[in-house]
Amino acid sequence: MDFKSIISHCKEYGFIFQSSEIYDGLSAVYDYGPNGVELKNNIKKYWWKSMVQMHQNIVGLDAAIFMHPKTWKASGHVDAFNDPLIDNKDSKKRYRADVLIEDYIAKIEAKNDKDVEKAKKRFDDFDEAMFRSTNGRILERQKKMDEIAARLAKAMSDGDLEDIKKQIEDLEIACPVSGSKNWTDVRQFNLMFSTQLGNIAGEEDKLYLRPETAQGIFVNFLNVQKSTRQKLPFGIAQIGKAFRNEIVARQFIFRMREFEQMEMQFFVQPGTEMKWYDYWKETRMQWHQSLGSPIEKLRFHDHDNLAHYANAAVDIQFQFPFGFKELEGIHSRTDFDLTQHQELSGKKLQYFDPEKNENYVPFVVETSIGCDRMFLAMLSNGLQEETVPDAKGNESTRTVLKLHPQIAPSKCAVLPLLKNKEELTKAAKDVYDKLKGSFNCQYDEKDAIGRRYRRQDAIGTPYCVTIDFETLEDDCVTVRDRDTLTQERVKIDSLKGMLFNKIEG
Ligand code: GAP
C-alpha cells in the first residue's frame, strides 16, 4: 500500500494522530491512539521478552530522561551530536545538507531499479544479480553513486562543511520547493533539546532531554553489575523516550522529534567485541524475520561514516514505502563511553574479572532500534489490499493488516451472528468474559457480520469468534482466521487453549 494510504489508515483506525491536532499539530510529534498504543506496547513486550526474558545474562533498566549535564559532555553529544544544515535563500526552507545528497543518490538508485523492473518483464528466466553486475548503464550509475557516497562520507567524518556545500553545487542540486540553487553556507546544528533545572537560568544548570537512552545504561553499569552479580559478557536493556531536534522531520513517524528507543548495551571483554558484534548482527536480523518481515525487505548496510564512539557499525535497513532506510543500528562502541564517564566523573567504571584477576573497562556492543520505526515497518509490511471471496462467493476487496498475532492490537473479536437476538448476544458476552482476562479482545455486535469481519481485518485482529444459533445447541463457536479465511468449529471449553497455542506458538 502507498505511504499516503498508510498514514490515513493510521488515523481512521485509531493507530496514530498528529500531536495537538486541534491547534494544527506540532511538527514531527505524534500521539498513539487506542489501537496504536496496543500495537506499540506489544512490540515493546516482544522485544523485552526476546532480549531480557530469553537471555539469562541480560537484565533490564529504566533510567530517568534527565541526566547530569556532564553526561552529555562525556558522551560527546554536546560537541559532536550535530547535523549539517543548509537553507535555500529563495524558499527559506531548511534542509539537512547530507540528506539532500543522499536523496540525489536515491534518485539514481531508483533509475537502476526501474531498469531492473523493465528487464524482468522482458525475460522469463531473469537473473537480477547477473543483470546488475553486467549491464553497462547500471554499472555506470552504480559507480557514480559510490563516488558521491564516498565523497560525502569523507566530508562528514572530516567535518568539512565547505566540501559538503561544494558537492551540492557540483551535483547541481536544486531546492525541491523553489527549484533554485541559491544556497547558504552549511552550518552545524546540535540536535539536543535543552531546558533549565529549577528557576536559575545559566549554562551551569542547563539540562538536556536525552537524545539516546544508552547513556542511562552506561552511568549505571556498575550499579547493575554489582546488584545482579553478572559476569562478562552481560547486557543491560532499556526502553524509553529519546528526543532530537531533527532539522528536517519528514516521513510521518520515521523521523520524529520525540520517539522511543529499545536499546541494549552488551558488555564484553576487550578483544572479543567483533565476535559479539557479528553475533548480535545475526540475532537481530533473525528477530525481524521472526515477526514476519520477509528477508527481501531487510538488508545490512555498513556505516560509511562511523559515529565518534564506534569502531564498527551496521544498520539493519527495512524497505519502507519510501525506500530502504535504517530501522536498527548495531554498533561496536569500544570502551569510549565508560572511559569518558570515568574521566569526567572521577569514579571508576571498571569490571573486576575474577578469572583474569584484574580490573578493566569493558568494551560494548550495542543494539538500538526505534520503536516507532518498528511500528511503521510492521504497518507498511502488513497493510494490504486483497481480493477475496465474500459470503456469496463473489469477489470483493478487503483492506487487511497482516500483523504477527503476538503484536496485533486485539487477539480476537467475539461476534454474535445477529444483534437483536438476546440468546446470541448473551452467549457471545459469556465467551468474551471468558477470554478477556487472557487476551486483549473486542466484542462487536454492530452491522452485518461481513462488515464486522472487515473492521477487524483492518486493525489486524488475527481471529474472529462467531456465535450462531448452533452454538446454543452444541457449545461450539466458529473461529475465522484473518489470513487464510478458513473457519473451524471449536468447543467453547477449548477455545482459550486453542487461541493461546495459535498466538504464542
Ligand atoms: N544509541 C545509539 C543510537 O541512538 P541511532 O542510530 O542514532 O543510534 C538508533 O538511533 C535508532 O533509533 C535508529 O535506528 C532509529 O530506529 C531510531 N531513531 C533515531 N532517530 C530517530 C527519530 N528522529 N525518529 C524516530 N526514530 C529514530
Describe the structure.
By secondary structure, the chain is of the alpha+beta class. Among the domains are: 36-73 and 191-382, BirA Bifunctional Protein, domain 2 (2-Layer Sandwich); 410-504, Anticodon-binding domain (Rossmann fold). Helix content is 41%, strand content 25%. The protein contains 17 helices and 23 strands. The strands form seven sheets. A seven-stranded mixed β-sheet has the order 3-9-10-16-13-12-11, with helices on both faces. Strands 20-19-21-22-23 form a five-stranded mixed β-sheet, with helices on both faces. Strands 5-4-6 form a three-stranded antiparallel β-sheet. α2 crosses α13 (371-382). The radius of gyration is 26 Å and the shape is globular. The model has no long low-confidence stretch (mean pLDDT 94). The structure holds glycyl-adenosine-5'-phosphate (GAP).
- Average pLDDT, rounded to a whole number, is 94
- Considering the protein shown, what is the CATH homologous superfamily of the domain at 36-73 and 191-382? Bira Bifunctional Protein, Domain 2
End-to-end separation: 28 Å
CATH class category name of the domain at 36-73 and 191-382: Alpha Beta
CATH third-tier fold name of the domain at 36-73 and 191-382: BirA Bifunctional Protein, domain 2
Number of strands: 23
Tell me the β content. Answer: 25-35%
The kinds of small molecule bound in this structure are: glycyl-adenosine-5'-phosphate
The level of helicity is 40-55%
Task: Please count the helical segments.
Answer: 17
